[in-house]
Amino acid sequence: MFVDRVEIYVKGGDGGDGVVSFRREKYVPRGGPDGGDGGDGGSVIIRAVEGLTNLAHLSFQRHWKGERGYHGQGSKKHGRSSDDCVIDVPPGTIVRDRERGHILRDLKVAGDSVVAARGGRGGHGNTHFKSSTDRAPRKRETGEIGEERWISLELKVIADVGLIGLPNAGKSTLLSRISRAHPEIADYPFTTKYPNLGMVAFEGEGGLVVADIPGLIEGAHLGHGLGHEFLRHVERTRLLVHLIEAVPIDGSDPVENYRTIRGELDHYSKTLSERPELVVVTKMDLTGARESAKRIAAELDREVLTISSVDGSGTPELISKMIELCRSLKVNDAANETVAPLDPTNVDEERNAGSSRVGARSERAEAAAPDAGESIAPQANEIVGSIVETV
Ligand SMILES: Nc1nc2c(ncn2[C@@H]2O[C@H](COP(=O)(O)OP(=O)(O)OP(=O)(O)O)[C@@H](O)[C@H]2O)c(=O)[nH]1
Ligand SMILES: [Mg+2]
Predict the structure, then answer these.
(1) Residue 120 is part of which domain span?
(2) Are residues 102 and 173 in the same domain?
(3) How many distinct structural domains can be found in the chain?
(4) Is 299 in the pocket of ligand 1 (CB under 6 A)?
(5) CB of 54 shorter than 6 A to ligand 1
(6) pLDDT tens digits for 132-159?
(7) DSSP code of 262?
């Protein structure tokens, strides 16, 4: 099962309560207040880790809660803070607040993390409230309530190059030829059902991450086929490589096929349709391919590369061209267009929300019941491999 969108409920653990307690010891008259503070509740943290390929593991558990902090005790003993609850997701996961819709964080690389629900802070015990005028305070704070919200997680894989084209155009075959990925390949349409990632290694630093997505068909934007749903996985690429079958098996016109895909891109988003594109005519080993490629180049009036994944012709040139173009395109081009970075207003909103809770904390300081005190947290030089996974 491949899951790239999921909604989960997160709640930080509540803070432990502070206590009211007084030192009671033989030969120590008027021992004074000694109520300890409560411990902090555990936060819920979302973290990107290498090795995960989709969000399927979250579709079975929708509620994630941090543990609550322990209460304080007498003799100035503080309650233990609870550990954070950490949820692992694949790099490329965008974390949004479901209700307000803003992005909490775009977890682009392994190691990125975000606090989705902060745990409440522990309340102060009565020791904190002693003063020259109040030597025996009966005041303490209850623990802060942990933050809670529904969040939506959306995976948009991060790749340098996205392969697009009609089903059977030879996308997966090309990926398997230029990388170590092993996508499923067959001579029927919609062989690829989920995105595949492969790393094209080359001399010198780094490599290129190439994403292969399910084939697009006419009307994909209306829900036909599988492709439109997966276009988001090429949204964050720097370059699109558009594959066209030189001599389509179904007898269709390759130029028309090209225009069909362009139409679908236009329907999807302006940013994607304006993304730099390399046009590649595939299956050049077949009879009639050469003439067809010439006609395609003439009709489209643009440079067209030709390849055959069977005999390997044209693939080194294609790789060089991809590298050259990707180098000239800024790394963050694609990402910044489609995924807004943390919105400063929202950050402020978040912070304000936080500080108002801190303010609320002193209001929670309360006179405890007399007996309350006695008992009581691109990866570029690694092989990415295929991200298709069966759960
Ligand atoms: N002769 C020839 N056949 C090819 C070439 N590249 C791919 N094929 C064949 O074309 C068929 C479809 O290839 P795929 O790589 O599965 O096509 P795809 O674009 O990934 O198709 P979907 O996953 O369905 O979108 C397979 O039978 C491949 O063996 C090529 O360069 N020459
Ligand atoms: Mg395929």
Answers:
(1) 5-156+340-370
(2) no
(3) 2
(4) no
(5) no
(6) 998 889 999 999 999 999 999 999 888 8
(7) H
